[in-house]
Amino acid sequence: MTAPGRFLTFEGSEGCGKSTQIASTLVWLRSAGLTVHEVREPGGTPVGEKIRHLLKHDADGDQMWPETELLLFAASRAELVRHLILPTLAKGEWVVADRFHDSTTVYQGYARGLPMEDVAFINRFAIAKQEPDLTLVFDLDPSEARNRALRRPRPVGQKDRLEDQDLKFYEAVAEGYRSLAKHQPQRVKLIDASGSREEIFARIQKELRRAFPSLPR
Ligand code: TMP
Fold first, then answer.
1. Is 165 in the pocket of ligand 1 (CB under 6 A)?
2. For strand 134-139 and strand 36-40, is the pairing parallel, antiparallel, or unpaired?
3. Where are any strands of DSSP class E within the chain?
4. What is the pLDDT of residue 155?
5. Before 115, cis peptide (omega within 30)?
6. What domains can you pick out in the chain, each with its CATH number?
């Protein structure tokens, strides 16, 4: 029987430097001989990419209720889990996800204020019980994260409904992630996202080696 693959998720607010570090992590894991699939949320399937556009950029999404937002994120995830994540893990390969259900807990639960038990129920339903093996949360001062997110170049005229939030929202997101790490310390690890790229990557490697001792030293 094939050993089950490993499922690694990266989390954190916009502007925390997640994408750069995911790219370095993928190079490192692949150079260790692993087959690693990269996915991003929302999106990653044809249906999921349409949902992503509606959630992030489409003006029709502007008046969306938080409940609708929650269900759309869950719908995108349900597709991704069943089309891609479960079959990949069953083959013994790795999945690295840029966001997963913890984003929903933090953004729709902590930050938007939807009832946590409803969010937990919908998350469980969407992920078909497939929890990540390890979740790395990039922890950065919320005002620094917001400044970086707002400075990021975007296609001319493109708005981003989810990034264009006030500082209070960014603070709630940071607090939500810290609380998750406190309550699920085995799975959810905070990574200090301040400092140079090299310093941050060294912190990631340390956590990954601790969780998966067969990774190269
Ligand atoms: P990103 O892919 O550029 O990080 O954008 C995803 C945005 O969607 C980001 O603002 C976080 C937000 N989000 C949620 O609010 N809930 C979720 O479940 C997920 C996956 C993302």
1. no
2. unpaired
3. 7-12, 36-40, 94-98, 134-139, 188-192
4. 76
5. no
6. 7-211 (3.40.50.300)
Share of the chain above pLDDT 90, in %: 84
HSE, side-chain direction, 13 A CA sphere, residue 50: 4
pLDDT tens for 98-148 read: 999 999 999 999 999 999 999 999 999 999 999 999 999 999 999 999 999
Burial zone of 178 (CB within 10 Å; 0-12 exposed, 13-18 middle, 19+ buried) = middle
- Are 139 and 177 in contact by the 8 Å Cβ rule? The answer is yes
Going by alpha carbons, the residue nearest to atom 8 of ligand 1 is: 162
- For 30, phi then psi, to 5°, come to -70, -35
pLDDT tens digits, one per residue of 50-98:
999 999 989 988 889 999 999 999 999 999 999 999 999 999 999 999 9
User: For 61, which DSSP code?
Assistant: G
Token pair listed for 88 = 């990949």
What is the Cα–Cα distance from 147 to 39, expressed in whole angstroms? 26
Place of tokens 């310390």: 185
| CA 193 – CA 114 distance, rounded (Å) | 28
| Token couple for 43 | 């999106």
Q: 38 - beta bridge partners? A: 96
- State which of 41, 57, 79 you would mutate to test the pocket of ligand 1, scoring each by most atoms of that ligand within 8 A of its C-beta: 41
What is the rounded distance in angstroms from the CA atom of residue 29 to the CA atom of residue 22?
Answer: 10
